[in-house]
Structures are given as C-alpha cells and as structure tokens.
Write a structure and sequence with these properties.
Chain lengths: 470, 470
C-alpha cells in the first residue's frame, strides 16, 4: 500500500456509504437491486454489489432478504462469506446458513477466526455436524475450540479468546517491544498485554499506550497496573459485561480455578453482550421469549403461548372475582362499563413501577441497602398518580352517570389500585430476585394478576359496601 | 513502585472484593458499617472504609445511602471524591451532590477529567452555577468545555474527548514512538492514533498493536488502516453507539463539518450509552419516563402521570364500546364476567409482538426491506397463539356456563383479537418510526387501545350477532 497525497481522505468509506442510509442501514433500493440480479441468476453482478460492503453490512444483507433467497445469495458470494461476516450475523440467520454449507467449508471459515467467534458459529450446530467440523480443523484450533465448548454456554470460557499477549514480569519495556516485533504470527489486535509470574498467574496489566510512552530500559513491572479485574473462567457472561461496564475495562484476563491465565475477553465482544442483555429484559418482561424477528415461527409460538396461557390463568382469577358480583352488575350495568378502567390503569401503573425496578435490579442499582427507600419512593409516586387519576375519573363518572356516589366509588377504587400497583411493582421483582429467579421473566404475570384482581375487587366491593347497589 | 516477587498476585483486588458480594455489588453489611460510623460522626473511620473502594464502588455507595446522608458522607470523604467517582455516579445522585459542593470545588474536580466526563458533570448544573464553574477553570479547559457545551445534548460533540493523539501521514513508525515518549503531558489512555493530512483531515487510523509490531523504519501511512468510521460532530449518541456496535470499534475520530479532526470517542464511554439506550426502551415502552429509582418524586410523577392519563383516554374508548352493549350484559351477566379475558390476553399478545418489533427497530434489524416478512412472521405466530387460546377458553367457557354457543363466541373473539393484536404490534411501531417518532414511546397506548376495543367489540358484538343474546 503506497501513500498518495491526493487521495480524498474519505473516499473508500464514501463509496461504501452510498449503499447505506443515514442510520447506516442498507438502503432498500440496494437490497432490491441485489435481489433483482440474484433472480436473474447474474451471480457476477451480485458479487460486484456485495463486495463493496463491510462484513457487518454483508451480514445485514442476509438478514434483510427472505429465507429462500439466502442459499442462492450465499452461493453467489461464497468467497466474500468469511468468518467475520458469519460472526456478525443474527444467530437464527447464521444457523440457517451454516446448515446449508458443508462441514468442511464451516471448518475452513472457523479456522480463520478468534476462538470466541469460531465457537459462536460451531456451538449451535447439531452434535454430529459439530464433530465433523472439529475433525476437519487443524489440531491446535480443534483443541482450543473443544476446550471452549467444554465450558457451559454464556460463561467467560465461551466468550474469551485464547489468543493474547502475555509477558513475564522481569522483562524490560524494550524486550517486550522486540518480542512483539518478532512474533510475526500474531495477527489479532490487542489493547493491553498481561504480565504473568513463573506460574503463569497474572500479576498486572499494561495498556499499550503506556508501553509506547516509556523508554526501553524501564522494567515492565514498573509500568504495569497491579490492580486488575480477573475474570473466573466460569463466570456468567452477564456478570462479565457488568464488570466491564462498571470498571470501564477494555480487556480483561480470564483465569482458571488455579488462578492461571487462560484467555482474554475484549470489550468489542462485551458490547454485543451488553446490548443483548439490556435488550433481553424488554422481551422477557413482555413475555416474548427470545423475541427475534428471525426466530422460526414454531419456536416463537412455543415461547410466547406459554405466557399467554399463564395470562389466561390470571385472567380467570379476575373473572372469578367479577362473577362474585353478578347481582350487582345486573342491578347497575354501569359497573360493567367502568370496571375495566380501574383494572387497566392499575395495570399500567404497575407496569411502570415494575419496569423501573427490573431495570434497576439488572444494573445492580437496586440492592438490599436501598430497597426500602425505593419502596417509599414508588409509594410516593403512586399516591400522587393515584390521586390525580382518581379525581379525573371520579368527577367524570359522577357527571356522565349523574351519580356522585358512583364517582366516589370509582375514585376510591382507582386510588387503592394504583397504590397497590406501585407496591407490587417493586415487591414482586425484588422478591423474585431474592428467590434467585430472573425478575424480568415472571414479574409481569404476578403484577397483572394483582392489579386486575384488586381493580375489580376494590371497585365492585366498594360499590356493594357503600350501598350503591345491593 | 518496586517489584516484589512474593506478593500474592490478587492481593489488592481480594482486599477490595471482601466489601463486594458475588455480583460485585457493595455488601449490605459494608454499607451499614459506613453508615454507623457516619452517624457516630467518626469521619476518620468512614474514610478508612471508603478509601479501600474502587471509584466506581464509591459512586455506588452514594447511590445506596439515603439522600440526607449523602452530604455528610461527601464531607467525610471529600478528598476521595474525585472526578472519576462523580462521572461513574447515577445522574440524579450526582446532580444532588454537585448542588452541595461549592463551585470552586466542582471546577477543581472537572479540571482533572477528560472533556467528556467534565461536561457530563457540568451540563446539568443551573446556568449561573455553570458560569461560575467555567470562570474558575483554567482558560484551556474552559474553552474545551464551552465548545462541548455548544453542541446539542446527546450528540457526538458532547460525548467526545478533545484529548487524542494525531500524527502526520509522512511520519515513520519510529518518529511516532519518539513523539509519544517525548509528550510527557499525555496522561490519558488511548488505543488507536489518528493519522491526519496537512489540513488536519483524518486519512487513517492505526491500532497501537500494529505500531508496536512494526519496525521503526516503516512509514505510518503503510501501517494504518485507510477505511475508517468518521463520526460527524453533530451525530446523535445513539447512532454513534450503533456504529461502534456494528463495526466493533474501539475508538473513532470525530470530524467537524469541514472534515477536520476535532475529537475522539472511545468505546468505554459508548458502553454506558449502549446499556442506557437499550435499557431506556423498556422504560419508555412501559411509560415510565426516565425510570430511575433516584429520580425526584415530582419528576417521576410528572413523566408517569402523563401516560396514565393517556391510558385513561384509551380506557374510555373501551368503556364506550361496552356501554353500547348494556342491554346484552343485563340479559347475560356472564358476558361481563368473561369480557376482560378477551381484552387482557389480546393486550398481552399485542405487547409481545410490540416488544419484538420495537427491539428490532432499535437495533436496525427491522427495515423497509423486511417489514412484510416480519408482518407475515408475526401473523403466523398470532394465528397459532390465537387458535391455542381460543380452544382452551372456548371449551372452558362452554363447560363452566353449560353454553356451547357462549364458548364458540368467546373462542372466535379471542382468535380475532390475538390476530389483530399481532398485526397492531408490528404496524403501530413501524408506522411511528416512519413518521419520525420514537416507536418505544407511544406504541403501548395505541396497541392497548386497539386490543381493548377490539376485544370488547368482537366478544360483545359476536354475542349479539350470533343471537346468543338480544
């Protein structure tokens, strides 16, 4: 690559950007023209368009087109379909594509990747295909991947890469630089090097910028940072992500149970996990399972229908409560007209608080030390909210139905239900968390059951107790 | 700092970790003992405990204790309260604390930080305090911070730091290393250096690991990567975060409208934004506004009551529909008992699909190119879900009420409502996005209105149309 002073600085990116819209998504028109050429069996033309793209955008392209066209598209751009493209691809789309490749091709792709990316591709394959891919790998890659697969899914052992730079603590900065220059086979990028003792235990971490700024004759032990965040190999990836976020890490050493350095996790892998985990809560809280638009219909059905059936159960509880007040409703049909309002707004108020609590639990902001403060906080908000809505609906109902007593009953029921909703919105997720459950998964069902039941019970019960009916 | 071969490698972290639980949260007992000493006015004792903590954990400590105790705690550990602690702190907690410090102290803290962290502390202050802090800063820091504050909030200009390393394209690797060794005032960490031309336009990026591996007599222009992701200074921070995530960036150059290099954004700042943005959707979708347990009650009330009032509006629509069928309900009170089931499960099904769509839109997976595929996908899931729930509730209602016709009516209404819910769950957020609105903010209100209304209308309408009542 030679330098050309006249080259416009952003030339290459601009060329690429013309296929992307302002949000850096592939333009619809670009996708369409790829598909046109694909349908015309113009493989050369397809390749011409696709080769302009960044690997992450090639991955996006596969996500954008229909399932039936992914096979032909892969055939047309086979040589562009490297491991980087596969590792950037949505899990479901990649699984489908890997199924279509033969195992030797998969092995070929995997061998050009860091262990963590290779594992991501191989871990979802059928056991038999997986064995065949592993057999086709060279022994070193194979050993590294088999070792990674031995750790449970979603742990540091799966996410880490084995490729890293470690040096001994007695080396000088100059030795380290020479060592790096001599190791021509190191192709990966790295941001920190790990300093180890004779037993291969990490004793410090050294950012490359410190090494570059330090004269050659300084000891590496005097440049390195001794406090370091060591990640146990069996730590859950969500925990790892929280550590990276909390301590602003760029990379971290992974150690086995004997404290020996076995791998490295870098922030670029963690960014995806952070985004995934933060995004998962919204899906879990809504009972949408994996919640991916690329998830096969039968998987989406299985994970979602479960929550709808659970919701059917809680709705039956609410129905049962209504059925206790059949006579009251027959006497005053306005009760049937108004009762869903009390339940629905209570449900919304509960969902608001629950979302706040689930989020605070997920990022470790809500702990034993401030649970009571949080409950007091949510209670105060609930009282203000409840009072506001109670006044509005109370006056409205009194006017519309010409019945001040009815207005008073619905106002009181509304206030009660919103306050209970606020408390349930904190208590339910906190209790689930203390019991070792994921608060995002089951909170909704319980909170909805509480707000529906209390909504109907308070409103219809007060209607009877106040002498409005019966 | 001298090297001691006998030092146990993990000694420092272990000492610190004893105050943290398995999820790296501060132990409740530790927080309690800090508070005990604080209440006993044993400031020295408080300091002794707190000084063992990492800055991120000191920030957590302030979040854990009650508001009234944060002032005294700050007084006791004043010298430990550096800019790093403040920049790690929850926004609301920091704002409260900064209010209690005098402006010269704030200026003192800010001057030790990178621009982006200093801006984060200063941007939320009252205009007058802000001016006073700026006056107390030295001219260089002041100019940098004022320039940052001139960019709109949540743009690249606010998030970037001005401290960065740029070199000219005609330099040799050896020149760059010498330049770095000579610049003793550069205290920050950096991971890549930016190569610029004579007009200060970026022409390439060079990872430090490449520089370290390359002999001194190579031209930097031959080592650098020419394709780079340039961030315009006015780009929204959420867009910036998506770029970092999509292209796996560690740092990126920020350019002004003339294409000149004006700053750098690093992934550690982006990690927080990614987590924040991904987490915000769950709060927005639930109508919980900022949704922070540290948000002042009156702010939380203001942002949440708005959505409850909007929900009151949609609930009134549903009530109006019920009121049209008053005679039918009087004739058969079982309708009033069963109708909330149809609305509630429809609402849940709609929320599932909506969560999936909002998430897919947020990460740019749902685009014009695959909207129809997504609608077909969600429709298929909805038909399976609807059929399952319809059969369950249909048989159940027929048996419980001894009325097969009632079972048929509720089954049909359930299927209709779940299918409509599935379609609305995609259409509503996609339409809002096309209109330039944030789909997470308003989708819920519309989807709930649709599922409630259709639920009551389909069930009660079919009951009348089928001749079950009337």
């Amino acid at each position: 690559m030679s330098q050309d002073a006249d080259t416009s600085p952003a030339e290459a990116p601009e060329l690429e950007e013309s296929n992307l819209d302002e949000a850096h998504r592939l333009r619809h028109e670009f996708v369409e023209s790829v598909l046109e050429r694909l349908d015309a069996a113009d493989d050369e033309g397809v390749r011409e368009l696709v080769e302009q793209l960044h690997p992450a955008d090639i991955a996006d392209l596969f996500e954008q087109v229909d399932r039936e066209r992914r096979g032909p598209l892969a055939a047309a751009v086979r040589d562009l379909l490297d491991g980087e493209v596969l590792s950037e691809m949505n899990d479901f789309v990649r699984e489908g594509l890997v199924d279509e490749l033969d195992n030797v091709q998969v092995a070929d792709l995997a061998s050009n990747l860091d262990t963590d990316d290779a594992v991501a591709i191989i871990e979802d394959m059928e056991a038999e295909d997986q064995r065949e891919v592993l057999r086709a790998l060279d022994p070193d890659d194979r050993a590294a991947i088999e070792e990674a697969l031995a750790y449970p899914e979603e742990t540091a052992g799966r996410v880490m890469q084995r490729e890293l730079v470690s040096v001994y603590e007695n080396m000088m900065v100059g030795d380290v630089i020479d060592f790096l220059r001599d190791s021509q086979d190191m192709t990966m990028e790295f941001w920190e090097i790990f300093v180890v003792d004779a037993r291969h235990h990490p004793v410090g971490t050294c950012a490359l910028s410190w090494i570059l700024r330090t004269p050659r004759n300084f000891a590496i032990a005097d440049v390195m940072k001794r406090e370091q965040m060591l990640i146990p190999v069996d730590m859950d990836q969500e925990e790892v992500a929280l550590r990276f976020q909390k301590y602003g890490l760029i990379s971290a050493a992974v150690v086995d149970s004997d404290g020996r350095l076995v791998g490295m996790i870098t922030v670029d892998d963690i960014v995806d996990i952070i985004a995934e985990e933060a995004g998962e809560d919204i899906l879990r809280l809504s009972g949408a399972g994996e919640g991916d638009i690329n998830e096969p219909v039968k998987d989406a059905y299985r994970s979602r229908v479960r929550w709808l059936v659970a919701n059917l159960g809680t709705a039956l509880v609410a129905s049962f409560i209504i059925s206790l007040f059949g006579a009251a409703i027959e006497e005053m049909v306005a009760l049937a007209v108004l009762m869903p309002i009390v339940a629905s707004i209570g449900g919304n108020a509960g969902t608001q608080t629950m979302a706040v609590a689930v989020r605070a639990l997920a990022i470790n902001e809500l702990t034993r030390s401030n649970t009571w403060r949080t409950i007091r906080h949510e209670l105060a908000v609930a009282i203000f909210n409840g009072a506001t809505i109670a006044v509005l609906i109370g006056i409205g109902a009194a006017l519309v139905f010409g019945n001040p007593m009815l207005g008073g009953v619905i106002a009181a029921a509304m206030l009660i239900n919103i306050v209970i909703a606020g408390l349930a919105g904190v208590f339910v997720p906190v209790t689930l968390e203390r019991m070792g459950q994921d608060p995002a998964v089951a909170s909704s069902v319980f909170v909805t059951m509480i707000t529906d039941s209390i909504g109907f019970l308070a409103f219809l019960g007060l209607a009877v107790a106040s002498g409005l009916v019966g």
